[in-house]
């Protein structure tokens, strides 16, 4: 079917067939949802065929594959992406005329699968796209959460969470593979027996959970490649207690069932904050055990030996969440396939690699030693043995046991997952230059000295095909007119755009495109928030998870300062600005919710105050998701990337805004540093303390009060918060900023405030005094963004870490 060129007539026939097969109805009377499901099923089956052809090819070549293990894949919607990547949007659009429905309508029906929190999960999804496009054999493994990241609803300014039932429409993309289910075992006791063949492990497993795979295909663009995303669903094996059932105790009979099912019920909604909860541990072990069993089985089925395991399989752990794959592979190799410790260990280390995404101490995962011992005793035993051998070896090599102990996996009754990952991987990477350097100097210092060269950098990237070509079709058209289609597969070619930096007609077109995209957002804001925003004002956007270190509060402080100036009549420097925020806070993160409340209150205040509203406006857009990002990022003129230096590992939103022509107001943090290097400081609004300055001030005892006392604007902001906004006091935020029992303003908004105000003045002055210069800077940003494509990122992983080659090369 795929070999046949898809045209509108063939497409119609395929859709008709699905409609009559599923609903036994005439095509013209099918509902929009039925057409959506029928079309998606057709595309899914096309992809399945395409994947099978691809699979045959790399299987025949006996090529190495990468398995990417991640607790999150924030894929975004599938239909548009797959049609785009298969290059059949036109044909499908034509075919849909028969059903009286447009592609846009069908796109809007699909629910956005929220199988991730933020940057980490979205990165994994971009990688799947780029791997398929680059014809790399790749499988992603994750969980089929019944409920993805909660839907955010703001009620009276306060974030509330609603369940995300993404499966009600997106289930069409999943292919159940019940025949490939495996069993994951928990709890129980271990007995060791010495036989003439060595140590034999006996294990009883009272809790056995079935892992049932569901496959999602992700097509590459204009390539043979299709990535497979395999999502595990948990099901209780002892699904129903027939004894209880026959005694009429139906609820208790089913209780067992729900325990098993709970594992893949819901995504943990915290980013950059670990929770040492048992359910989270179970999710992690469930993912790695099911995946490792699957990987080993496929390998053994093909080669009839595991001796060449690490030559043929690269296993990547995305952050420490899948760390337990290291002991799990050891368990399988030793207990199920009788390899010795040393043989098994070599196979594990040679195949496993690990990416770190944070240096924040509250995000570094540790689990209670005891929890692991009780829930997965054999795994605990293996971790203990990994550590024992490591400590002996390191103490011997370093001649100092205390030094070795600093790298131990065990400490203070906890298991340090990062230390397990570093020990069990042949390569560890950070996600931006600065982040990797910080890793080497701080949390992984001892490891870096012990095994120099093991920690490397691979800077993050984004798929420009989704984030420009699909999300910003007007910009795509312009770029295609100027550069041709080559940049679709060679994003470095965007560089050629720079030749047009003095071309008035190109600059004007860029300006018009931005304006159209701003109008799209204004319509959305009017529908959703019932607020009219001025499309001629500068659009300043901060869209990302709500976190203290990302400093949405610094942005809010500036807004308050502008309100105060306007109210006092100090309007000489004031220009029209529209501030757009979108952010979800972890449900238990009180401070983050309070900051949302503050932003909401500011929005409310301004929209009730016609005088202030003449100049500035603030909107908070609910329920930030991939789809909302696709709408708002193309409209961004200022991209707020204002984390405290040294805290944001990389950022990827910064890259998405840049490639859509926004100018960044940013600190020297994460990948901002590399963005500046590419685009030049003259095309970036840099402000704030550098990471070493942050460290030095912090080490000398940061005191926000000192800044407060010296700075009238800060004092007025605090007064404003204390006085309250529309009758709601924000004293607790002012206390947080000034300190008391804890250090005030822990993310140093006060220290960076003046510099932030100043850079904004510079930016907005330029916007209103020399729009062509602004557009020129915007063009330079687009032209410099090619290097931040995830095509480049996955190529680097393939070469430097996985030893992977594309099919047919
Ligand atoms: O990963 C983010 C970092 O904060 C960003 O700087 C970076 O760009 C991206 C991609 O590398 N980290 C996360 O998104 N982390 C999480 O979402 C997360 C989720 C669960 C538990 C811990 C962290």
UniProtKB/TrEMBL annotation:
Coiled-coil regions listed: none
Cofactor(s) the protein needs: pyridoxal 5'-phosphate
InterPro entries: Glycg_phsphrylas, Glyco_trans_35
Glycosyltransferase listed as a keyword: yes
Role played: Phosphorylase is an important allosteric enzyme in carbohydrate metabolism. Enzymes from different sources differ in their regulatory mechanisms and in their natural substrates. However, all known phosphorylases share catalytic and structural properties.
Similarity field: Belongs to the glycogen phosphorylase family.
Gene Ontology cellular-component terms listed: cytoplasm
Keyword Glycosyltransferase applies: yes
Enzyme class of the recorded protein, top EC level: transferase
Keyword terms, alphabetized: Allosteric enzyme, Carbohydrate metabolism, Glycosyltransferase, Pyridoxal phosphate, Transferase
Pfam short name (any one): Phosphorylase
Protein name: Alpha-1,4 glucan phosphorylase
EC number(s) recorded for this UniProt protein: 2.4.1.1
Molecular function per GO: glycogen phosphorylase activity; pyridoxal phosphate binding
One of the protein's GO biological processes: glycogen catabolic process
Modified residues (N6-(pyridoxal phosphate)lysine): 656
Catalyzed chemical reaction(s): [(1->4)-alpha-D-glucosyl](n) + phosphate = [(1->4)-alpha-D-glucosyl](n-1) + alpha-D-glucose 1-phosphate
